[in-house]
Amino acid sequence: MIQTPYLLFLGDAPDALSAKVAQGIKDWRPENAVGQFRMKGCGTTVGLTDMTLQEGLDAGAKTLVIGVANRGGVISAAWTKVLVEALEMGYDIASGLHNLLRDENEIQRAAKVHGGTLHDVRIPSVAYPIANGVKRTGKRCLAVGTDCSVGKMYTGLCMDAEMLKRGMKSTFRPTGQTGILITGGGVPLDAVIADFMAGAVEYLTPDNDDDHWDHIEGQGSLYHVSYSGVTMALIHGGQPDALVLCHEPTRKHMRGLPDYQQPSLEELRDTALLMARVANPACQVTGISINTQHMAEDEARAYIKEVEDRMGLPTTDPFRFGAERLVDALEAL
Amino acid sequence: MIQTPYLLFLGDAPDALSAKVAQGIKDWRPENAVGQFRMKGCGTTVGLTDMTLQEGLDAGAKTLVIGVANRGGVISAAWTKVLVEALEMGYDIASGLHNLLRDENEIQRAAKVHGGTLHDVRIPSVAYPIANGVKRTGKRCLAVGTDCSVGKMYTGLCMDAEMLKRGMKSTFRPTGQTGILITGGGVPLDAVIADFMAGAVEYLTPDNDDDHWDHIEGQGSLYHVSYSGVTMALIHGGQPDALVLCHEPTRKHMRGLPDYQQPSLEELRDTALLMARVANPACQVTGISINTQHMAEDEARAYIKEVEDRMGLPTTDPFRFGAERLVDALEAL
Q1: ipTM > 0.90, yes or no
Q2: I want to staple B56 with a disulfide (CB 3.0 to 4.6 A). Which of A144, B40, B61, B262 is the partner?
Q3: Residue B190 to residue A118: CA distance in whole angstroms
Q4: Rounded distance, CA B273 to CA B241, Å?
C-alpha cells in the first residue's frame, strides 16, 4: 500500500489531459491529496492548493505522487531534481510511468540513502499465487466492456461512491495503474505473469462480509483479441456475482484493431455470463453503463432509453447521470 | 532457438516418469538426440545409446538438454559438476527446470568463461509485441481441452507427424517447456506478461504458405479458472482455422480444483468456437481427441465410438490409434 495522504506532482504538465492521474485522485479520493506541486512551465491545474514540498510535508503528506505523464517517456533532469529533493525531505514517491523510478540512478540512490520507498505501480510487488477457485464470501461486481477504454474504471468508481453514500459496505479494487494511484493499492494486472493472473485477482478480492461489495476494475474485453486473456482472468479470478456491461457507442472499430467491430451488448451479455458462471453459477448481468462523453445530452438520454428498452436492464451513464439505478440493482440481488 | 542435436541428460533420474522430457524428445524428435548421459544411480533409460560427454561431442551434439525433473527442486552438487564440465567442453545447456540455470553461480560462471549459452526455457527470451489481430496467411490448428493436461501437446505432435508423413507442410508450435525442448524453440506462454500473451502467440505462428499448417500447442482450458486467460490468448492470438477438442474421460474433477467439474464436449465446442470466431470467423471444430491412457482397449474403442456418434465429428485417441482421421478432416477443410 502507498502511504496517504499525497502531494500531487504535476511537474511541467502542458495540459489537463497529461494530468489525468492527478485529476482522478482529485475527483475520486480528494481526502488522499493535501495539495498540488507545480513546476515552472506547468500549463494546467487540478484545482488543489499549490504547495512547496515543505508545505506539503507540513500538511501531512507522506508520498509525492507523479500525477502526470512524462513527455517523450523521459524523466527529465528538472523532474529528477525535485524527486531527489522530496526523498531527502522524507517523502516516498509513487509513479505509474512506463519508465521506472528504480531505473533512475539518482532517484534510486536518494531513496536508499534517505530510506524512502519508490512505488512503481506498473510492476507487481507481490508474488501472486495460482488461483485456487475456492468460493469466497462477500459480493463482487465486475465491469466488462464491448471494447477497451469504454469507462469500466469510472463505472466501478461511481458505483463504489454511490454505495458508500448509502452507508453500504463497498471497496473499489483497482487492476490498473491509475486506479492503484487513486486508491493507494491494487494489482497491475496487465503486468502480471500469465500463470498468476487469476490468482492475482483472487488475492485482490479476498473473503469479506456477506453484505460487502467489491467493485473490481475491468480490463480489456472478451472481444478484444490483444487483451481478452486478461479479461478472462478477471472473470474467473473475480467470481463476480454481478456483471455490468460497459459500452461506448461512438467507437468506429475496436480500439487499435481497425479490422474488428465491437460486439453487440446482447453478444457481450451472453458470452460474459457464460464464462462467469463457470466460476460463479449464480452470476447475473445487472445493468448497463454507457459512456456518453462524445454525445450531446439529448442524444445520450435517447440512446440510453433505447438500450434500456431493448435489453430490459437498468441503463445509465453513471459518471454523467449518476449510478443510483446500477446500485439499486445490486441491492435488489 | 536451441542448437541441435542434443545429448540428453538423464542425471540420476529414479524412474521413467521423472525423465518424461527426454522421453518426449526420443519419441517425437529422435533425430534431435545423439544419445543419453546417465549418472550413477540413474534408474531409467529412454533407450538411446549411453554416451560420455566426450562421446556426445564426437557424435555432433551441440547442447546438453536436461531431460529430467530434479528432486526437491534443487540442482544438486553432482549435477552441477557435470553441467560445468559440459560447458568447459563447449556444450550449450538447455533446461525447463523451475530453478534456473542462470541462478546457479558455478554454472553461470562456467557459461561466461567458456562462451556457452544457457537456455532456461521457462523464461521468455524475447520481448513479445502486443497482438495486432491482423489476419495471417497459412492454416492453424489449435487443440483446446475440457481440462488441463488432457493430451493437447500429444494431439498436436501426432497430427504434425501424420501431416509430415503425408508430405504436407506442417509445423508443431510449442507453448510449454516440454514442447520447446522437444523441437528446440517456441514460446513459454505461461511465463509471458499478461499484456503480451496474444502477441507472443502471433509471433510464434507467423505468415506462412497457404497450404502450410501450424499445430499450436494448447494450454489450460477455457473452463479451468486458474489458467483460462492463457487459453483465451491462444484462441485469439492463434486465429485458428480448426479446433480439435481434447478430453480425458476418467477425470473426476478439474485438475487441482475439486469443486469444479469438466464441461461436456458440447459445451466446450460451442464456447471455444464462439471465442475463436472473434479472431477468425471461418473457424471450425474438426475433430475430437480422447486421451484413453487409463482405459482398456475395448473400453477406449467403445467410448470413442459413442462420442463420435453423439458429436458427429471424427474422434480418436491419436497417440494410441493414429491421427489419420483428424488430419483427413483438416485436409478436407
Answers
A1: yes
A2: B61
A3: 28
A4: 10
